[in-house]
Amino acid sequence: MSTPLKLRFFNTLTRRKELFLPVGKTVKLYTCGPTVYNYAHIGNLRTYIFEDVLRRALEFAGYRVRHAMNITDVGHLTSDADEGEDKLQRQAERERKTAWDIAAFYARAFEQDAKALNILPPHIVVRATDAIPEQISLIQKLEKKGLTYRTSDGVYYDTSRFKGYGKLARLNVRGQKAGARVEENREKRNPTDFALWKFSPTGKKRDMEWESPWGRGFPGWHVECSAISMSALKTSTLDIHTGGIDHIPVHHTNEIAQSEAATGKPFARMWMHGAFLVLRDAKMAKSAGNFVTLESLKAEGLDPLDYRFFLFQTHYRQTLTFSFDAVRSARVGLVKLRETIHRLEHYTQHGENATLERSMSKVQGQAHQAIEDDLNIPKLIAALFAFATILNSAMDQERNIPRAAALALFHEYDKLLAVDLFRKKIAIPAEIQELAEQRQNARKKRNFAEADHLRNEIHAHGWLVKDTPEGTKIHRKES
Ligand code: AMP
Ligand code: ZN
Fold it and tell me: Is 43 in the pocket of ligand 1 (CB under 6 A)?
C-alpha cells in the first residue's frame, strides 16, 4: 500500500474514536469465543464477522496480528451473572450425551460455519477445559491479594475491593446496591460479585469437574477469558479485546476486574464491541430458542457469503434487523459486483482510452478513509459500487480501460471483505430460473417452438441453457 493507513477505532472504554497504535510489532487481539452448547445463530456470527473484518483491516493496514480466542465449553451458566445451571451440562442431559460430546460437536459446527463465512481461524484457539491450571493460578493470585471469599457453592470475587469496578460499562455500582434488585444468591457480599470457582454439587458427579485448592468443581465463565487471553498472547495488556455489546456490563467488566487486580496493569487498551442483530420484534437468543442459523439461510437458497455481504450494509456499531428478504436484496448487489468483475475479466479492449485513473484513485481514497474511520465498511462498499458503475459504462461505450489495475483494486478490497468477488460461478437470477422452468414445461408438453423461443430469450439475457443427462444446466454466456 502506498500510504500506511491510520486506523481509528471506537474504544468502548473511553467512548471515543481513537487512533490505534499497538504497543509492540504484533497486534495482540483477543476475541471472546462461542459457548458451544448449541449451534451459533446468525447474530453470534455477525459478531465473529465484525471481528474477522477487524483482523483483516489490521493486516490490510500492514500490521502483523496475533489473534486468540477461547471456546467456552464449561462454566457458562444459564444467567451470565453466575446463577442457574451450566449450559453445556444442561444440554448434555437434554441430548442424553456427555458435556464433552456436546462441546466437541458444537465446536466443530462453529468451525464449519466460520469457514463457510470466510472467517479466518484465530491463530490460537483454547478451550476453557484445556486451561484449568491457568485459571486456578489466576484465582490463587486474586486470593493472595485478599479479593476472594468462599460461599457454600463456590469462591467469589469481591467486586467492592476493586477500585474502578464497572468502568467499562460506566456502571453505577452504588445505585445497584441500593436498588431493589432481589438477589438470588444471598451469600454474595455485593450484587456484582461473581464466581471464580464453583463447587460440584454434593452427591452428583458432573461430566466436567476438576480438583482445586478449594474443592472439586469447575471454573466460572469470566475467569477463562482473563486466563486464556493473557497466557495465549503472553501479555498482561492486550492491544484489542472484542465481543458483542451484551458483554460490556458483566463479562468484560468482570474480566477487567480479575485481570487488572491480578497484574496491576491495564488489561486491554482498546475495547471494541459489535452491535446486535435482531429479529423484527425480538432479540435473537440461543437461550430463547428463536434463532436463525446458517443452515436456515441455506434452506432459503441463500449463500453464507450473501449473509456476510448483507452485514456490510450496516456499520458494526449499529443494531441491524434481520429478514430473509433483506439478505436477498443484499445478494443482488453482491452479484452485480461479481458480474462487473467477470465482465471486466473477459472484456476485449478496444476504442479510445477511458481516463479512469482519476476515478480509480478517488475510489481508493474513499475506501481507505472508510476503513480508517472505525471500519466503515458500508462506505467502502458504496465506493466499490460507484467504481463498478463507472467501469460498466466505460465497457458499454467500448472504451479502452486499465483492466489489470481495476481488477487489482477489487482483489485488494476482497482480501478485506472476503466475499469472493472473483467467484466464477455466478448466482442465476430469479427471472432466468423462471424462464428456464417455463422452457422445461414447454419441452415436457413437446411444444418445441415455445421451448426454442424461451431458449432465445434466456440467451438474449446473457445466459445459456444446456440439456445434459443430469438435467438442464444454466451457464453465464462468456462475453
Ligand atoms: P455466546 O456463544 O452466547 O457466548 O456468544 C458469542 C458471541 O455472540 C458473543 O460475542 C456475544 O456477544 C455475541 N452475540 C450474542 N447474541 C448476539 C446477537 N443477537 N447479535 C450479535 N452478536 C451477538
Ligand atoms: Zn470472554
Answer: yes
**Ligand 1, atom 18: closest residue by C-alpha:** 43
> 244 C-alpha vs ligand 1 centroid, how far in Å?
5
> 31 C-alpha vs ligand 2 centroid, how far in Å?
7
Sorted by sequence, the CB contacts under 8 Å of residue 423 that are 6+ apart come out as: 338
Q: What is the pTM (predicted TM-score) of this model?
A: 0.88
Distance CA 29, CA 63 (A): 12
Look at residues 5, 60, 8 and name the one whose alpha carbon lies nearest to residue 317. Answer: 8
Q: Considering only CA atoms, which residue is closest to atom 12 of ligand 1?
A: 244
Dist. CA 244 → ligand 2 center (Å): 10
Q: Is the domain covering 8-274 a CATH 1.20.1440.230 domain? A: no
Q: Which helix (H) or strand (E) holds 474?
A: strand 471-476
Domain boundaries, the chain: 8-274, 325-417, 430-476
Please give the distance, rounded to the nearest whole angstrom, from the Cα atom of residue 203 to the centre of ligand 2: 31
- Indicate the fold that domain 325-417 takes in CATH: Four Helix Bundle (Hemerythrin (Met), subunit A) (1.20.120)
pLDDT in tens, the chain (479 residues): 556 799 999 999 999 999 999 988 899 999 999 999 999 999 999 999 999 999 999 999 999 999 999 999 997 888 776 777 888 889 998 999 999 999 999 999 999 999 999 999 999 999 999 999 999 999 999 999 999 999 999 999 999 999 999 999 998 776 565 334 455 688 999 999 999 999 998 888 889 999 999 999 999 999 999 999 999 999 999 999 999 999 999 999 999 999 999 999 999 999 999 999 998 877 777 766 678 999 999 988 899 999 999 999 999 999 999 999 999 999 999 999 999 999 999 998 777 777 888 899 999 999 999 999 999 999 999 999 999 999 999 999 989 999 999 999 999 999 999 999 999 766 677 788 888 889 989 998 999 999 999 999 988 887 888 887 767 778 766 54
Instruction: Looking at 276-323, list the stretches that DSSP marks H as alpha helix, in order from N- to C-terminal side.
Output: 294-299, 304-311
The response to whether residue 33 sits with its C-beta less than 6 Å from ligand 1 reads no
Q: 44 CB under 6 A from ligand 1?
A: yes
